[in-house]
Amino acid sequence: MDIIAKEEFGILQKKPIKSDEEVKELVENYSSLIFRVCYCILGNRDDAEDAVQETFLKYLTKAPEFVSEEHRKAWLIKVSANISKNMMIFRRRRETVDIDEVKNIGIRENDFEIFELIMYLPAKYKIVLTLYYIEGYKSKEIAEIIDISEDAVRKRLQKGRELLKKIFESGEQL
């Protein structure tokens, strides 16, 4: 297969892969955050690790240009969430969350209880509540990251809080 044929099949990249130092810095800065987002959606350590790798691979192959570091961070969160959602759809399985496993994913001690409860929620509430309460994003930022309206974010936060309250009061999962 010659270079032209490879290019026709999309094997050659349009932009160069980032430098080793940039990749190392990216992984050091964002792997924990991306893992938490993926784990929040997938509820499984192995799948979350796969999604993190896919996210970094997409970053390397797409080599997007960013306006700021916040733009890069938002792109990584959005891509990791989309990859995780696609994995859930593709695998068509419903995993239970091993809460003991959650203790090892980099959640701060004071955030662990809320994260533990969030894990019982449906996926559309998990990501919004995690970004809001654990990662500290504002409603407007979350809306931009996951590509929904700010009103939808606020509604999901409200519904998620109601569901969390029910879980907390009943001591059961949904």
Shape field? globular
From the helix content, strand content and strand pairing, which structural class follows? mainly alpha
- State the share of residues found in helices, binned by percent: over 70%
Q: Main beta sheet, described?
A: none
Number of domains: 2
Report the C-alpha radius of gyration, rounded.
18 Å
CATH superfamily of the largest domain: RNA polymerase sigma factor, region 2, helix turn helix motif
What's the CATH topology name of the largest domain? Rna Polymerase Sigma Factor, Chain: A
Distance between the termini: 54 Å
Assess the beta-strand content as a share of residues: under 5%
Tally of helical segments: 9
| Counted beta strands | 0
CATH class of the largest domain: Mainly Alpha
Mean pLDDT: 78
Element order, helices and strands?
Answer: HHHHHHHHH
Poorly predicted parts: 1-16
